[in-house]
Amino acid sequence: MFMPKIIDFSAPEDEFESILDMEDEMEFQPAPELDMPFSKKLLDELNTVGFKVFVEYYKDFSDPDSDEAYIMQLMSAKETYEESACQEKIAAAKSIIAQGLGREALQIILCSNKVDSKTVQLAEILLQEE
Fold first, then answer.
1. Is there a domain that residue 68 lies in?
2. Ramachandran category for residue 69: left, alpha or beta (phi over 0 → left; psi -120 to 50 → alpha)
3. Does any domain span residue 104?
4. Is 17 a member of any domain?
5. Domains of the chain: total
6. Which stretches within 1-130 are classed as H helix?
7. Domain residues for 79?
8. pTM above 0.85, yes or no
9. Please, is 32 exposed, middle or buried when counting C-beta atoms within 10 Å of its C-beta (0-12, 13-18, 19+)?
10. What are the contacts of 10-13 at 24+ separation with CB within 8 A?
């Protein structure tokens, strides 16, 4: 488990700089409870989409016949996102699916404490259908 070093701001400046340098060398590590490898890029894309949005529109994102305009129309009917935000979310979700990382994204969502129980249940159903 990573334990942060307590920084003494009264310490000499060069010691403070060495602590900052250590942060640059730290590698991204998944949360231990996930117990699976995944990339920071996947997490970034998933955060762009939003965990709940990814699950709610998963079938639409996964459907090769569902183009951006169709999904935007669906999202506009239920969500209050600006058009540019919808485009960004759709592009990130389609990217995750195109890379074959849909299952991994759903597994991350299942292990997250950032989503409500309804979203978790739907993610479980989607994983079973995959």
1. yes
2. alpha
3. yes
4. no
5. 1
6. 13-25, 40-49, 51-56, 58-62, 68-78, 83-98, 102-110, 117-129
7. 31-129
8. no
9. exposed
10. none
